[in-house]
């Protein structure tokens, strides 16, 4: 058996070989918090932090990984994967920091909180959100060039790709990239002066300067920055005075080798309501676009969000979300956030059915629901007692398990009885069958519950509203 140090070195060699064959997003997602646990008699045991990583490596990457391992160490005859949750703990030093080891550039230090760094009078870095970093931006074929350009600018502002013009649709991550550059520049050199703002804020400051008759102070302030970042420049359309001032600010910064970064929802040549001289300035530098990520990148984003929020969601649920949200990364993240929030409120875990309802409610899907379980995910009517139980539990904001349990708490009794009533009347199961669904209750208990609800519906208007709402949700 080789020593622990040798195991670490062996794993590093293996990862270096695998890293070149995978997309960065996939490599960082599935090999984070992994390590060699043991190597003896030709058996190499690889430790992974959770069941999802184990399943993915076994099902999707096993062939590539085994080939890489044997090319480095022919003595390996068998590879096994073992779950070791401790690998994900900060104090466990067996797993290496992949970002640190494989980063092409120096890893910027993370700014703690929305701290304010005083830069030039009237400008501070508090508008930069520290959560936006180039390291946590998931890279795929649709944004690889943009990410590479941003990394180059962050490492050498004012020398390469100046100006840098990033365009793409709403919610595709342009703001993430812009603020990541600002954070990276400040991390590398805290004395640099970075000004990030929306075009609306830039306009408002010009208007305020004109009103107070202190235009010179405004000009001096923004012409002393090392990096000017303007988000959504298309909103400068038809604002002649703002365009005039931006033009002169642009020229002054450019002539002094200061970095200029601009974002828009369209390429420069389509900014018809901006002055030609501004558009020509935008076209002087690097122009990159950000498109909606492909399925694999969307899935990697969701796995990254699971790690960020420290939640476990079944891979099939994440795959279903990635398959059916097609408009923007913002919508993708919105579905994810709502799914975990709903699950926390109901003390349950997200399911294909629950996320399908969220996608439908938010109007995120382009066409018919896709996926292995699309039929069950978008029910037009109930098909089983499980459907009824899930819908009733969701309506009363309780978990299905609690409702089907034995607790006699008041807030659980009525939903439990109502679920039995609806299963009997809408699904048509016998009392004995319903009893089995609810933990082996006898048919007399179920019959009593149904009669109880039947009586209450005659005088309880609120319960009647609940039943009608639930039936509507059931598609009845």
Structural descriptors:
476 residues; alpha/beta; GMP Synthetase, Chain A, domain 3; Rossmann fold; Helicase, Ruva Protein, domain 3; 4 domains; five-stranded parallel β-sheet; three-stranded mixed β-sheet
Q: Care to describe what's here?
A:
With 476 residues, the protein is of the alpha/beta class. The protein has four domains: 4-102, 2-Layer Sandwich (GMP Synthetase, Chain A, domain 3); 125-290, Rossmann fold (3-Layer(aba) Sandwich); 293-367, Helicase, Ruva Protein, domain 3 (Orthogonal Bundle), CATH 1.10.8.60; 379-476, Chromosomal Replication Initiator Protein Dnaa, Chain: A (Orthogonal Bundle), CATH 1.10.1750. The chain is built from 21 helices and eight strands. The protein is flat, with a radius of gyration of 29 Å. The model is unreliable at 1-5, 104-122 and 372-380 (pLDDT under 50).
Task: Write down the CATH topology of the largest domain.
Answer: Rossmann fold
CATH level 1 class label of the largest domain? Alpha Beta
Roughly what fraction of the amino acids lie in strands?
A: 5-15%
| Amount of helix | 40-55%
Structural class: alpha/beta
Summarize the topology.
Blueprint: H1 4-19, H2 24-31, E1 35-40, E2 43-48, H3 51-72, E3 78-83, H4 98-102, H5 144-155, E4 164-168, H6 174-188, E5 194-198, H7 199-211, H8 215-222, E6 227-231, H9 240-255, E7 259-264, H10 276-282, E8 286-290, H11 295-309, H12 315-324, H13 329-346, H14 352-362, H15 374-377, H16 385-395, H17 400-404, H18 410-427, H19 431-437, H20 443-456, H21 461-473
Parallel strand pairs: 2-3, 4-7, 4-8, 5-6, 6-7
Antiparallel strand pairs: 1-2
């Amino acid at each position: 058996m080789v020593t622990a140090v040798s195991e670490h070195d062996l794993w590093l060699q293996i990862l270096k070989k695998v890293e070149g064959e995978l997309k960065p997003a996939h490599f960082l997602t599935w090999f984070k918090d992994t390590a060699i646990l043991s190597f003896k008699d030709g058996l190499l045991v690889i430790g992974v932090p959770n069941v999802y990583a184990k399943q993915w490596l076994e099902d999707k990457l096993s062939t590539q990984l085994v080939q890489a391992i044997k090319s480095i160490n022919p003595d390996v005859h068998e590879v096994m994967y073992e779950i070791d949750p401790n690998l994900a703990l900060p104090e466990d030093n067996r797993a290496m920091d992949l970002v640190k080891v494989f980063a092409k550039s120096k890893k910027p230090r993370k700014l703690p909180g929305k701290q304010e760094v005083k830069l030039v009078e009237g400008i501070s870095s508090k508008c930069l959100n520290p959560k936006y970093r180039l390291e946590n931006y998931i890279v795929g074929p649709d944004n690889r060039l943009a990410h590479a350009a941003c990394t180059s600018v962050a490492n050498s502002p004012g020398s390469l790709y100046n100006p840098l013009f990033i365009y793409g649709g709403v919610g595709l991550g342009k703001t993430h990239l812009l603020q990541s550059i600002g954070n990276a520049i400040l991390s590398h050199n805290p004395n640099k002066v970075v000004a990030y703002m929306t075009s609306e804020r830039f306009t408002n400051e010009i208007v305020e300067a004109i009103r107070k008759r202190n235009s010179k102070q405004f000009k001096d302030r923004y012409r002393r920055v090392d990096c000017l970042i303007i988000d959504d420049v298309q909103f400068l359309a038809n604002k002649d005075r703002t365009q005039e001032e931006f033009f002169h600010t642009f020229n002054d910064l450019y002539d002094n080798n200061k970095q200029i970064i601009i974002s828009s929802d369209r390429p420069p040549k389509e900014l018809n309501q901006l002055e030609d001289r501004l558009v020509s300035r935008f076209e002087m530098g690097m122009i990159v676009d950000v498109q909606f990520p492909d399925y694999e990148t969307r899935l990697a984003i969701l796995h990254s969000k699971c790690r960020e929020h420290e939640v476990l969601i079944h891979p099939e649920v994440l795959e279903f979300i990635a398959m059916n949200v097609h408009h923007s990364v913002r919508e993708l993240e919105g579905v994810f956030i709502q799914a975990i929030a709903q699950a926390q409120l109901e003390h349950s875990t997200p399911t294909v059915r629950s996320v399908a309802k969220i996608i439908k409610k938010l109007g995120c899907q382009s066409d018919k629901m896709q996926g292995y379980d699309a039929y069950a995910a978008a029910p037009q009517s109930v098909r089983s007692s499980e459907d009824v139980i899930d819908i009733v539990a969701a309506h009363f904001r309780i978990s299905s398990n609690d409702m089907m349990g034995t607790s006699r708490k008041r807030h659980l009794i009525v939903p439990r009885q109502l679920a039995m009533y609806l299963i009997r009347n809408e699904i048509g199961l016998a009392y004995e069958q319903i009893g089995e669904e609810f933990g082996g209750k006898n048919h007399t208990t179920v019959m009593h519950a149904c009669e109880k609800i039947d009586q209450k519906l005659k005088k309880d208007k609120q319960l009647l509203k609940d039943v009608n709402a639930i039936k509507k949700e059931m598609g009845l």
